[in-house]
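User: I'm putting together notes for a lab meeting next week and I want to include a structural view of one of the chains we've been expressing. I don't have a solved structure, so I'd like a prediction I can at least talk through. The sequence is below, exactly as it appears in our construct file.
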Amino acid sequence: MSLQYKKIILFDGDCSFCNSTVDYLFKKNSKRSLYFTSQQSRIGKELLEKKNLPSNLDTIYFYSDGKVYEKAAAFFHIAKELDSPWRYFSFLRQITPRSLGNWCYDRIAKRRHLLLGKKDSCRLMTKEEQQYFLL
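Assistant: Thanks for the context. Below is the predicted structure for the 135-residue chain, given as structure tokens.
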């Protein structure tokens, strides 16, 4: 499968907060432009290696048009793909200093396991969802 033109979110597959976020993003992306893979998956590992990026489970990565965005930059780029009103969060990228955005992101990332814990198993996906989750 060619990943060149896909918009892929790479997340921590063992994190309940991350999985809940992915579920939410899937629901709010009615145009189905987003694909998802965990950093622990074969595709996730290959993509990170290809882009010379470490697997950092405290970081969300967003692969789009051959570039990889991380942390707050990933959040803002992902927001562009969401339904209204969530897509308007992408405009914050223009007025939020990178350091401030990443500082906020890091505060949440460090506490994500406290918020919802870790997953011991994955939920079953619907047929529609399966084509958007890359393994």
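A couple of points you could mention at the meeting. The helical segments are 16-27, 42-50, 71-79, 92-95, 98-116, 127-130. The chain has one domain: 7-130.

User: Perfect, that's what I needed.
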